Amino acid sequence: MMKLSALQQSYLNRRPGSFRGAAPLDSSADGANKSPAAVFWLVLHGLCCLISLVLGFRFSRLVFFFIFSTSITTNTNHFMAPFRQLTTTTTAADVASDLPSNPVGDAALNGTRVVVGRHGIRIRPWPHPDPIEVMKAHQIIERVQREQRNQFVVKNPRTVIAVTPTYVRTFQTLHLTGVVHSLMLVPYDVVWIVVEAGGVTNETAAIISKSGVKTIHIGVDEKMPNTWEGRHKLEAKMRLRALRVVREKRLDGIVMFADDSNVHSMELFDEIQSTKWFGAVSIGILAHSGGAEELSSFAAVEKEVEEKEKKQAIPVQGPACNASSKLAGWHTFDPQPYEGNSAIFIDDRATVLPMKLEWAGFVLNSRLLWKDVEDKPHWSRDLDSVVDDDIESPLSLLKDPSMVEPLGSCGKQVLLWWLRVEARADSKFPAGWIIDPPLEITVPSKRTPWPDAPLEFPSDNNEKTANNMEEAHPVVKHTKTRSSRSKHRSKRKHEPKTVVDTKQQSEQN
Amino acid sequence: MEIRNCVLALILCHAAFVSCAVGLGRNPPTERISGSAGDVLEDDPVGRLKVFVYELPSKYNKKILQKDQRCLNHMFAAEIYMHRFLLSSPVRTLNPAEADWFYTPVYTTCDLTPNGLPLPFKSPRMMRSAIQLISSNWPYWNRTEGADHFFVVPHDFGACFHYQEEKAIERGILTMLRRATLVQTFGQRNHVCLKEGSITVPPYAPPQKMQSHLIPEKTPRAIFVYFRGLFYDVGNDPEGGYYARGARAAVWENFKDNPLFDISTEHPTTYYEDMQRAVFCLCPLGWAPWSPRLVEAVVFGCIPVIIADDIVLPFADAIPWEEIGVFVDEKDVPNLDTILTSIPPETILRKQRLLANPSMKQAMLFPQPAQPGDAFHQVLNGLARKLPHDKSIYLAPGEKVLNWTAGPVGDLKPW
């Protein structure tokens, strides 16, 4: 395997006498006198050099072995065979030739088919990729990779029971669509229990039906209050309602709380499969400022930054483990930097703070909720004994909170993110996000080469408002006066457009 | 009587069947390796043999190592680590009268060039001098003329002590070692430099370095065939055809533009990581048939494709290499792609499961400190399997079988 480099070769060549294997050469090296033998060797050497030059390779070594192989008793076959090879190679001395075959049969006398010496380099007639072989190789690779994936798949996967409290509002579609997409990607069976405040509506039903998973849509009559505190309380009640449904229907699987504005990673669903009874995962808390920071002065911002550097609070809520990977406590979100600045009403432009321990960070085996299950652990409370008003986090379902299993490498992996983003309280959005009847044109787009002149307008066009305000001023007035009746109707329905119109009016005035 | 025999036979058959079924049942993703001699990789040699380590003057071992510390990291470092392992192993005995095997710690592969390659020119003299020492100071050499002694000779062609194959063949195994057991990396059937009863070991590969380059097992294997190394050795074989018996050059010429073959002469820093992303790793011969690539392929779970006619792989009596690697004749190299793609996927998956077996990986390594099942223990297992010694190895006092003056004149000079 190892061979000396050229440098070493030259080092060796400086001491030719002791390292040439064949004995007679020693005498030639030693002899400094011009004996006829020495001259003869010199001439022969020169001749060999010339022949090698013509042929293109050094064949003097092989000739020596051939000539002196008779003096070496044991290994004649090894040295004879290369010479026979030599005769076949003289016809095609080019390295890149393909040879018919190795003269292996002769060496078989010695019981081996491996011979020392120069061999030809075998190249097949068309040394390029064969498409059929390439296809087969890709199929092999695909099979190998499939086997690799199967090693890490969960054995005996259980159904994921997702519980989502929701209510109709501007951002509902945005949030629920995210949950719909996450649940569609889950590789296990999913049962989605959607609990709606204010009763079951078609809007919500339309969104959740697109998920393709089995859904249970429940309505709770109470309307969602517009304070965060009230909202948290009602959501807790709604979740308990869902848990009661799980109990009644005896749904089997793992219950997780998929709040509609949270973002879930796919690893979360794989990780919760390993829950035995009650597990906890780490949530990343994305408490954003809601724009409040713009109002503070520059100095205040600098101070905040300094304070933040001192504290380095990690925005994660979840189980904390000690050195032996056992549950030792809980990481909670530190609300202190936001004291006094937090949002109270749902549409406040301030930071929304999470509760001490969010429901979304807990998962439980649905059997904990069933009646009459023998092997239910004694440290769990029966669902019927839980009073609705008193429950803040699912830990209240347990008598002994230390029995919670920390998931996701003992809480080191953040598997989902908590986010609360809501629109202003007075924001309106089209029902089902379908614009009906179609919007009126307020401003034509400047650059489209419409055949109609910009001044002529039919009463209802389907074009939407554009940015270009200045040119359209006279036009706006025109349309307003002409199609006032339909405009009035549309004014009530499409309020954002009204805002634009009033703005234009004020600019004009 | 007949009925009893039948019942006994039935019970035995049933037991065999059950054990077979149990063996197959607990498998994904690894499979038990049952070699030709049974499940021998996990045998424990302690208690089965006793080894006596000769105390040689430090000029044979420590001083050589002090002159050049690189000997601890190159692929011939097995001789040094074997010595260290035996010194502190439970199989060592300080009483030579009860020893089954005798070990002579002489580092013959530690005379390095500035580039780091060992020069074998003084090794025969060193070995001869060591043997003269032990035969004159202890009676155990003369008792058997070395038949119950073992030596570690990890150089290119083992105890032939030369790097060029023709010269090595010409020298043959050192006369004095002709009765001893040789532990060597070189192995080729019907070759002068592999004597009957030798134990083939893998070359040394640094276990820490390989462990530090492991990537997650989930990483999908997307490279079909992987190889990094020389195809032509322009320095020593300018006209081509000598190096690797033309096999490496054939691989290059036939597959250099084939997208399935990730082969080149580069030295990437991600060499180990790449091997873990490949399905097949080529292990062609070079100037000698063995290579550390085999060890690397086994450790990283890449199926070794061995292109070396008549090679004898490490621990061949304990590891069923035919089931783990793919053997390709040198003459079949132009059809390598057809050969590899025509292997059924189930066979490939089975080979990968066998490679995933931790005892397989352990057997290829020389970890410090030694761990159960590693290459040191496999060597001891091999030695233990040769016991008890045949009575014929013991010579009558004064009887001499080896010719101490045979060999080239240069070998007879004192060292």
Query: Portion of residues in helices of chain B?
Result: 25-40%
Percent range for helical residues of chain A?
A: 25-40%
Taking strands numbered 1, 2, ... along the chain, how are they ordered across the largest sheet of chain B?
1-2-3-4-5
* Spatial strand order of the main sheet of chain A: 3-2-1-4-10-6-11
Main beta-sheet annotation of chain A: 7 strands, mixed
| Radius of gyration of chain B, taken over Cα atoms and rounded to an integer in Å | 23 Å
Structural class of chain A: alpha/beta
The total beta strand count of chain B reads 10
**What share of the residues of chain B does DSSP label as strand, in percent?**
5-15%
Can you give a write-up of this model?
The complex is a heterodimer of chains A (509) and B (415). Chain A is of the alpha/beta class and 509 residues long. Chain A has 17 helices and twelve strands. A seven-stranded mixed β-sheet of chain A has the order 3-2-1-4-10-6-11, sandwiched between helices. A five-stranded mixed β-sheet of chain A has the order 5-12-7-8-9. In chain A, helix 5 crosses helix 6. The longest helix of chain A has 22 residues. Chain A is elongated. The N and C termini of chain A lie far apart (93 Å). The C terminus of chain A is likely disordered. Chain B is an alpha/beta fold. In chain B, the strands form two sheets. Chain B has a five-stranded parallel β-sheet. About 4% of the residues of chain B have low confidence. Chains A and B meet through helix 1 and helix 8 of A and helix 6, helix 8, helix 12 and helix 13 of B.
